[in-house]
Amino acid sequence: MKNNLFFRRQLAGLFLAIIFFLSPAWGFSSLLALECEPLPKGRSEKEYSDMIAVCEAARDKAQKDLGDLQKAIETMTLQEKTTRIKINQAETQIAVLEDEIAGLSAKINRLNESLDYVSKIFIARINLTYKMGLVNPMTMLFGSKNLSEFLAKSKYLRIIQLNDRKLLLSMEETKVNYDEQKQTKEQLQAKLVVLKKQLDLQKANLSSQIASRKKLLEETKGKQAIYEKLIAEARAELVAITGILSGEGNEKKIRNVSEGERIASVISGASCNSSGTHLHFMVVKGDGTGNTENPFSFLRGGIDYLNCSGSACGSGDGDAFNPGGGWNWPMNPKIILNQGYGNTWATQHTWVGKIYKFHNGIDVEGANTEVKAVKAGELYWGSFVGGCTLQYVRVKHNEDNLNTYYLHVNY
């Protein structure tokens, strides 16, 4: 009997706990039941915030499986939905702010008219009070028929003066109210500017996200095997580059080379850890740390180029192309930039960001496959053996204590 009673109590406690966690007041069940869907404009801030949380949770769950193409596409789609919600949220906030600003403008106009009206009355009353104030009390006394008339005139004068004070206070209160409403309007207008900038940014993000998903589908042709191959290549290239910069590559000194001298040629098509023709160019400190430098800090500007580092060639949403040095380029223009240096568009918007967050060189193509030394130095042929053999050349530049690396090449 005691055991049955204990069991019933435990069951009741569990039931109450379930009701508590799934109750509307807790809000947990409603969030769990929701699916990520773009909310239209005109919803409440809580609805937007809740749906954004649902979408981001679903996105985070989907993106954990890196090797699944469908999960990658689902992640991108969920991110697009999240951005659409944020766009509708911003547009709703903007509409509310614009209504508030319009209401304040009308109120300020009314206050301004009221202030003008009160000011005119006050000026007239000041003139009247001033004239009455010029009357000598003795003159007013002798000009009165009797004492009662004199006292009445004196009382009337005091009433006028008291009303003038009240009118002055009313005018001051109206002015303060006017100034406060005007300040509130200016604050709302400043907030409106910020919101509109955020809206523009979200719209740009959405365009990039849509382009990223389309680009992934184009690169993989929607096939899981191709996607897995791209991921494997990116991982293997990262391992190889890390190994090369750590001094694990097999190198052989060849000769001294001069600036602009041909030192290699880019491999056409797919090669070790590369799905297509490109030169991975790096500038590395010669202090043995393997730390890279931004190649754009050394390469000269003013060349013909096409920026293909974003959603599409020439789209304008890719990496900055801003060379500012004096070195010649390792390939002949027209230069095609496939990926820039550092935190790139690809690491932020594509699956590449799941492999690495920082691109330690630049990926470029040229008018032909010829690769040239950017500065004079000692030429080394090198290779790194992993799942395949990645060939590269290195030029040691003594005067700058720098090394330049050229990957995916034939000697």
Explained architecture:
- With 411 residues, the protein is α+β, with helices and mostly antiparallel strands.
- Helix content is 53%, strand content 15%.
- Strands 1, 3, 4, 5, 6, 7, 9, 10 and 11 form a 9-stranded mixed β-sheet that branches. It has a 3-stranded antiparallel β-sheet with strand order 8-2-12, with no helix packed on it.
- Helix 3 packs antiparallel against helix 4 and helix 4 runs antiparallel to helix 6.
- It is elongated.
Proportion in helices: 40-55%
- Regions with pLDDT < 50 over 5+ consecutive residues? 1-33
The topology string of helices and strands comes to HHHHHHHEEEEEEHEEEEEE
Largest sheet: 9 strands, mixed
Report the average pLDDT across residues. 83
Secondary-structure content class: alpha+beta
Shape: elongated
Helix count equals 8
What tags apply to this protein structure?
single chain, alpha+beta, three-stranded antiparallel beta sheet, 8 helices, 12 strands
Brief synopsis:
The chain has 411 residues and is of the alpha+beta class. The protein has helices at residues 2-22, 28-33, 45-62, 69-133, 137-142, 147-220, 224-245, 345-349; strands spanning 250-257, 262-266, 279-285, 292-293, 305-307, 335-339, 362-365, 370-372, 377-385, 389-397, 402-407, 409-410.
SSE diagram, text form:
Layout: H1 2-22, H2 28-33, H3 45-62, H4 69-133, H5 137-142, H6 147-220, H7 224-245, E1 250-257, E2 262-266, E3 279-285, E4 292-293, E5 305-307, E6 335-339, H8 345-349, E7 362-365, E8 370-372, E9 377-385, E10 389-397, E11 402-407, E12 409-410
Parallel strand pairs: 5-6
Antiparallel strand pairs: 1-9, 2-8, 2-12, 3-4, 3-7, 3-11, 6-7, 9-10, 10-11
